[in-house]
Design brief:
126 residues; mainly alpha; Arc Repressor Mutant, subunit A; 2 domains; 5 helices; transcription regulation; DNA binding
Length: 126
């Protein structure tokens, strides 16, 4: 995983875990990788992964079964969508709008590029 310098690593790992949940790789009630397993996979300190898991637990995305591990909460995907949607609408969308206005990009062109991106990168959800 390539980390960006403008955002805390634990938040970037939280986004990675969240994306795996939203893509269905880890379904509600599934056990997710242990702190140690994910730290090895991402080549980070286990304390950083633990901070990520605590953050996601506070967001009610995952929960801990003491002695067994962390699991995706039944409402985890909905919590992720709500959190990420709010963040996107408040932070990213205004910048996006500013850029398309300044670059004179039409909504038709945006729609075409969006559809191309989805068909190339993701299977459509039913």
């Amino acid at each position: 995983m390539e980390f960006r310098s403008n955002e805390a690593i634990y938040l970037q790992i939280a986004a990675y875990v969240s994306e795996n949940i939203l893509l269905g790789k880890w379904a509600p009630e599934d056990k997710i990788p242990s702190v140690r397993e994910l730290a090895v996979e991402l080549e980070v300190n286990p304390n950083t992964v633990m901070r990520t898991y605590e953050f996601l637990q506070n967001q009610e995305v995952i929960y801990n079964k003491r002695g067994i591990g962390f699991f995706v909460a039944p409402t985890g995907p909905k919590k992720i969508i709500a959190y990420r949607k709010e963040t996107f609408l408040q932070q990213d969308l205004p910048e996006f709008f500013r850029n398309i206005f300044l670059l004179e990009i039409g909504l038709e062109e945006i729609q075409e590029k969006y559809e191309q991106f989805v068909s190339t990168n993701y299977e459509l959800k039913n």
